[in-house]
Input
Amino acid sequence: MTTSTSQDPFQLLRRILELEKRKGFQDTAAAGGLERLVARNLPGWLAEFPSQKVRLQQLAALLRGYADRSPAARAELIEKALAVLDGEAILPSEQARRPARPRAAARTAPVRIDRAVTPDDPVTVLPGVGSQRARQLEALGVTTVRDLLYLVPRRYLDYTQVVPIGRLGRLVRPGEEVTCSVIGEVVQIETRETSGGRRYVSVQLRDETGTIPVIWFNPYIARQLEVGQRIAVSGRLEGNGPYVRFRNPEWEPAEAELLQTGRIVPVYPLTQGLYQRQLRQLTRAALDLALPRLEDPLPPALRERNQLPPLAWALEQLHYPETLAAAERARRRLAFDEFLVLQLGLVQRRLAWHAQAGIAIPIDRDFLETFLASLPFQLTGAQRRALEEILADLAEPHPMSRLLQGDVGSGKTVVAAAAALLVHRAGYQAAILAPTEILAEQHYRTLTRLYAALPGGERPFVALLTGSTPERDRGSILAGLVSGAISIVVGTHALLEERVRFRRLALAVIDEQHRFGVLQRHTLRSKGENPHVLVMTATPIPRSLALVLHGDLDLSIIDELPPGRQPVKTYVVPGRKRTQAYEFVRREIEKGHQAFIICPLVEESEAIEARAATAEYERLQREVFPDLRLGLLHGRMSPREKEDVMTRFRDGELHILVSTAVVEVGIDIPNATVILIEGAERFGLAQLHQFRGRVGRGSAPSYCLLVSDASTETARQRLEAVASTTDGFRLAEIDLELRGPGEFLGTRQSGLPNLRFASLADLSTLQAARRTAEDLLRQDPSLSAPEHAPLAELVRALWTRSVADVS
Ligand code: ADP
Ligand code: MG
Output
């Protein structure tokens, strides 16, 4: 261990004092003795951490003359010094405000263990963890001590905010949200039903000052509670005055020792057979035993610059925060780490990718012009520009990695088709990857059609490979790819399979980026010798966010629609005019067209959403359109069922497709002319715009009906914004402003490695991490400096693990 000033002195001292204790107070823990260690380092520490002056001097004073003391006196001094250190970390703001609270209070039991524990040890080194407990922990994804340190509490129970029940009535004010915790005894449990038939559990909870009703819309809770039991309840109050109650609060059995200490305690995700109390003991032990040996991957200077606390502090506060603000500060530090490692990987990847040797494609300009002249339309200026950017990349002896962003209907496919054609012309192969079979099939048809006017001998052989390609065709396609007879292949995930091999893959096009990700990109790349990669997306993401999210890509934007496109006429329809909206839909169908009806977004779960959509579908079929053929699409259906209903809709067998938000992005049904969106106010503007892009793809005028019962001014404004502009990027910006990036992107951003602490809503942390990654790599492109070694290791671990996951 180094004693350089760049290390957190309190961590260092704690480690040394503990060692001194273990060695029996012989002043052998530090070479030259404790007093000298402190004296030698004090000036440096004071210079680096001036805000800690008082404590540092206190510690120095305690250890002065240590060598001359008796063992008993030494033991006492060490305890005092540890008390100064206890529960503390370098965090001036936290510390100035609050007196040190003895941390030991929250410990369930002092843990003593002979052998030192390192973070990478299996959990079985912890006291009380045998093979059964280890299996339970594994179900939570915890196999090492480090996993335990990084186990994220789902939430906290704040025993520091416990309120006497009798005072609750005075806490609520109209229009304000009050969240608090109470502890009481269960005096009555009843299961009841609302007038709508929903079952709920009603419990009376009592303490010395009063009684409060608590209700849960979850009948199972009745089985978990008993009259006479003491529980802690934490959540939002509703009602007012004497009529307050808790509705669906968090709860747990009240633990006596926690009540006394008045702490904030973590609530972990659980698994069969494992209880909060046990997990708390385990995380406590992991922190006590392993934190001293945990290295902080962030060099102190970098930490200071970004105002981040040390790792050990963050992990301690993640589990046992002193305040909820401290827990949030801890989360931000851990989120920064996640973003930084991700960004380091992205930026490094981009630099490395560009530095590699790739296939320089000679661009046959005459052939390109022949192709473009054979099209039934002229490329727009924006398409032309994007194509030129792509061709310039293809001609380079380094592999391209470019994102092609363009609003729905902006004509990305033809740009990709031209690029693929030139690759074919140069004697190489291209692969186009789509997220679903129906989209793959659609691309396949489009390509075949676009190439149809080329002279026979110059037409590329295009193949389609998906999960439902019959086995005998599959064999010949695989052979054609290996021999090079097939020069362009369109497909789904099936293309990523091990057995798919190419003769000379030079271009991989990935459509609808947000369904795949960085990792699949990597798998496709590995199938050629550094092929050029083009990613296409219709999700209009503002440039700032795109740069961060797709940090390893260059960006081309098609910001112009082909001329003569009829804009989809968009109307906001208040709920009371719903019947008229249905009549409108019916008239379009009578003209021979088709319609989409999108069900309201249900946030709770996909299962509930699927049920709601099924009910809506049945109602529409029975009561509104009994004479028409309707189909249903929702997220709980199997891929096969989804493909099936989409195919029937595409082939005109169905008049109306009733769907949740899962309806295919990019799906092209030219005969569909109207899309009715129920509960439109619940969707993001960009999402509404995506829905709207499902129609207006043919020559007939098309319509989007935004049906909404919401009466608030903001809801109306948002919907009017969609009705008044057809510019997806503009809408994306408005949406980002109105809702922030978290909701804007949806909570699950597939294709990104799992983020435990970080949220994409946290744009400032994301950008700070991005800047830091760029700075670091500018100074040290391969992260080979010794102080960057831990970071380099994390980057390596993340990227190798993630890539292994997809193959
Ligand atoms: P998207 O960007 O949504 O994938 P597509 O590539 O599917 O858009 O193009 C949408 C439609 O517009 C297709 O029918 C395509 O043939 C047509 N199209 C593309 N470019 C042009 C253009 N420059 N002029 C006219 N029509 C075009
Ligand atoms: Mg498309």
